[in-house]
Amino acid sequence: MPATTERKGLEFDGEFLRKLEYLNVVARKIFAGSLRADRQSPRRGTSAEFADHRSYSAGDDFRHVDWHLFGRLEELFIKRFREEENLHLTVLLDSSLSMESGQINKFNYGMQVTAALAYIGMANLDSVNVLPFGDRLRDGIWKIKGRGKVFTLFNYLKSLEPATTTDLQKSFREFIQRERRRGVVIVVSDFYDFEGIQPALKFLKYPKNDIFVIHVVDETEEKPDVRGDLRLVDSETGGFREINVTDALLARYKKAFAELSERVETYCIKNEMGYVRARTTIPFDELVLGILRRGGLIR
Amino acid sequence: MAPFAFALSGLAAAVIVLYILKVRRRAVVVPYLHLWQTLAAETRSVTLFKKLKRLLSLLLQLAILASLIFAVARPSLGGDAALRKHFVMVLDASASMGAKESGGRTRFQLLMNEARRLVESRNPDDDWMVVSASDRIDVLSSFTKSTIRLRGALDAAKPSIHELNVGQTVAFAREATRDKKAPVLLFLSDGNAGQLRAAIDKDPNARLIPIGEARENVGIVRFSARKNSSLGTDYIIATVRNYGDKERAFQMEIALNNVTQKVIPKKLAPGAEETEKLQLSLPQGGTLRLVLKFDTNAEPADALEIDNVAYAIAYPERLRRVVLVTEQQGMETPFRIAFESMAEVVDETSIAVTAEEYAALKPEEKQADITICHNVLPADLPPRGNIILIHTPMPSFLPAKITGEEAAPTVLDWDREHVLNRYLNYREMKLPRANLLQLSGSAGANIVDGGDSPLVAAFDLPDRRAVYIAFDMMSEMFPFRLAFPMVLRNSIAWFETEEDVMFEDTYKPGSLIRPLRKLSVGSVTARYIKGVKENNLTIPVAQGQFQFEDTEETGPVYFRIGDREYATAINLFEPAESSIAPQTADINDPPATGGAFRLGSGELWTYFAMAALILWAAEWALYHRRVTE
User: Fold this and answer.
1) Quick check: B23 contacting A, CB < 8 Å?
2) Tally of domains in chain A
3) Which domain holds residue A47?
4) What pLDDT does residue B625 have?
5) Is the N-terminal amide bond of B270 cis, ω within 30° of 0?
6) pLDDT of residue A95
7) Residue contact A231–B32, C-beta within 8 A
8) Is the Cβ pair B626, A226 closer than 8 Å?
């Protein structure tokens, strides 16, 4: 397994923009008619579109009583209307130190994916949050709208540097606390906090967000090729352990890594979360395109 | 064992340091150490054995170092004394080592190959002496451990045509190692017809390393020429022997001054020896050469060439001046007749005179090689020169006296071995009146015994020889008249027996040639063939003696001493050298006399070196297979 790779400065150049625009065009075709800002909210609201009735209870606004129905049934029912809401997209980008590793720098890869998804969101949806996290939620960009702000997004991403350890629960809790609106939440992370993945995703699921998990995996981490008497140093904590990496241990590691990844995937599927394992060898645009074509990003 | 080697044990510290550096772990940054920790904890061994395995690499490396140190220290099962031996390597440089082996190489070349192999494969801690042995010992290198010196010594070794002095060689080797610990005497030789094996038998320190395989050889054992003055011929004896295992056919070619005189076809059974005796008339004398000629296509080939050629000297006839003194004129006739028949030995200046005439001769006219007095004794005989007195008064210089006269003497016996009696038979001979003699001292010898007194006496005086015949053999005794030439020849032969013998007939190669008699000259000149050209060497004479040393080639050697030339020849004539069949190596022999010889016996360093190699391989395999974790 290679040591932490040196992350070259990510350049959001013309080529990158062309790829984003292509993705955007594809997204429009795929989500024509559904990727509207007037996406119906499951919440009942005050729009003109009737949704259903419910029994009157004390304190309800009398303006919403269906008097026609009272005349036929002599019972008070409150009219409920479908509320129309804007679609909010939040991309939670893992910016812990573990993202700095990988044969292809995972953080760069994550930023490219984030930039692409955010661009699509900014062009088609109401607002986009791009929020990095590590051991906590870091200051990010909130409610950015329109393609015109794309360079603001790029500049922000370019200014990001991985730091700290990974604490998914704390980070996601802070996100939930700060973002009350429901929306689409995309988590881009290597999830090197296997113990905290499920509780953390529960947090995200709680406000009925649509959650999509992009599990960034580098081949050298999935199938490491190191042997011998090694001092393994944790990229986040700096802690180390002297271990003789034998073929047998390597085999067990690969098996354990695969099991943990599958466990995350299984959890996501069971909990109606989108999941994609994003190997860094797959170009980011292919990955995003695949996500869009599968329709797993928006439910 | 070399103690200095253990100083290398300090390298153990270096090995440990290198080990620590070697096992210092490479740092690898991983994104999620927790997973590795979990997995490693599942497999972490806690048993003592597995903990020790972590040190296995270090232990193996220390074991490698220890093995190398022991290898350098060169321990042996027998301890230091057994390890450091003193070798005397004796190279047989005798004539038999010139035998041609299959492949065309000489036995000596094979010997040198073996000697070099031994030197190169020896234990460098041993002291080696290299000796070349033939009839003498040449120390090519004293005891040394230096390979360079030993190689130089071997380069200096040269074959010879000398015989091998086995006793001297073995004695020298033993003496050289007398005070040495663990002596080993290595004899690289064909065994010298078994003599060497016999000489070192039961010697636990001696080993014979047999060299060579060729066996077939026919050699000349003897070749000599004698002047038969009695008959005026040359008597040649040639003896040859087949030393091989197969019947051999060849020709004996005898040449005088390179002119072939006789060719004798010969066929010899294995081990057979035959002698050819020839009477040749070689009055001019010269160098006789006997060559054994084999059919070049015949198999097997004759392996040793040096004993196929031999030389002998045929002396030329010499004319002697004879002065005959008779009682009266007319009595010299039978003598003249005899002299004329002996023209090859009697000089034409010889004279026959009466006593009166003799007295009138000048002193130089009286000088003669032989003076014969018949019935009369001149008063003034010359002080030198040999004399034959026939029925004369007894001169004063002879230790004898005439005591009377015997009218009818009878020969009772005669000395048949004496030269003077050669070819003469006195049996039942009727003799005329004879003087009765009484010999005094030891100078006179009774060679024809008449009972009461000698009938013929031979006197060997310091400066001359004399024959006294007590009866008048030239009287009416026809047989004696007829036999006088023989008597005269026999007398000449006896007079000159020692005069012509200045050297032995033959000398061995490498030996010193010294005259048998004292010389009165200041120097002599030696003439001999060296290589392909004739060589002349003037040798000073000191106290009547000289010595000639350049005898490394077979052939004739001529010495000019005063106005006369003497000669001798250098020949091998050594059965032990001609018998070239080598001693075969018998592995069942006790180690003293042969068998497989191992220089490195008792040494363990190779085993330690191999152990180090095996340990290194094991360490490499284990370490790189992470067994040590």
Assistant:
1) yes
2) 2
3) 41-84
4) 55
5) no
6) 93
7) no
8) no
